[in-house]
Amino acid sequence: xxxxxxxxxxxxxxxxxxxxxxxxxxxxxxxxxxxxxxxxxxxxxxxxxxxxxxxxxxxxxxxxxxxxxxxxxxxxxxxxxxxxxxxxxxxxxxxxxxxxxxxxxxxxxxxxxxxxxxxxxxxxxxxxxxxxxxxxxxxxxxxxxxxxxxxxxxxxxxxxxxxxxxxxxxxxxxxxxxxxxxxxxxxxxxxxxxxxxxxxxxxxxxxxxxxxxxxxxxxxxxxxxxxxxxxxxxxxxxxxxxxxxxxxxxxxxxxxxxxxxxxxxxxxxxxxxxxxxxxxxxxxxxxxxxxxxxxxxxxxxxxxxxxxxxxxxxxxxxxxxxxxxxxxxxxxxxxxxxxxxxxxxxxxxxxxxxxxxxxxxxxxxxxxxxxxxxxxxxxxxxxxxxxxxxxxxxxxx
Length: 397
Ligand SMILES: [Zn+2]
Fold this sequence. Notes:
The strands form four sheets. Strands 1, 2, 5, 6, 9, 10, 13, 14 and 15 form a nine-stranded mixed β-sheet that branches. The protein has a single domain (7-184, 264-395), classed as Glycosidases (TIM Barrel, Alpha-Beta Barrel), CATH 3.20.20. The two termini are 18 Å apart. Helix content is 38%, strand content 17%. Helix 5 runs parallel beside helix 10. By secondary structure, the protein is α/β, with parallel strands linked by helices. The structure holds zinc ion (ZN). Zinc ion (ZN) is lined by residues 129, 142, 144, 202, 204, 206-207. Residues 129, 142, 144, 202, 204, 206-207 line the site of zinc ion.
């Protein structure tokens, strides 16, 4: 059950726990950092990780992995299967970590990157997003695809029912941006912001089907996207329209055909979130994070209004150029949070040069009533940054 009242958590990759040894790693988290909650990466995207204290892999390459093996009956609902990381050495790998955390009475939430996965995209090319020209986006699965949605739900069921997690922290549960996960990190030339947005639209069979179900004919839009992007790419970049891909532009773009398609995409993603939230609620767990104010954001592609009534925590953040602005913004965030959800905040200890700067942020949040604090990835942190966390433990204890 999700910890109420107060908690101190940290994001952590399973390999950092098992490379160091579960007991030794957890002793550091408990004794040095004073923490009592894990945000355990259960499915993570491709990256090259630099891990300053890791005794076995100071550098680790990963192409996108899930840190478990498929066991739950819900996997029958999809042809996709999780692709285990090379550190997953037995079927009990994740259970050993979770059981050790529970023996310490720690909370366990699973951090799950759903659709942004180079390895899944390679294994299941038919599940990828497809641009208007028919090119597959080889790092992002499409949330309209029934097998992808089945994969999402099976993964949630596996984590919450097989391992008994307190919640799911989601990333990439909707559509990916066009340039998300480009093969060498970037494209040259980089298309204009509006062309990037258009290239990020998915026209796979599942998306076309959903548009038609909503009464649209998506093919004229797809042609218009191709013509618009191709015409721009043929011009010198100095002649490109470099205006922002904002709601005002999208509402009028391509003779008004774009916006209705975006509405369908928004509904596609929102209904998936609702299904995931229903699965989490069934076990008493929580789906997170969400900000304090619900909104339908068609451009981004998610309506958080139907999700807010079931939130258990809302995420607030510190922003502003000076202390007075930071306090005013945080106070405003907390004031607009729904009364049934507790505010939580994540601090990136690696973003601060000095303990006193991190202390200012942690103590501000504590003073305004935030008692759920979490910190950025354990394996990416240096020892002194972990010691800072322990020195600030009064914020949640
Ligand atoms: Zn699609």
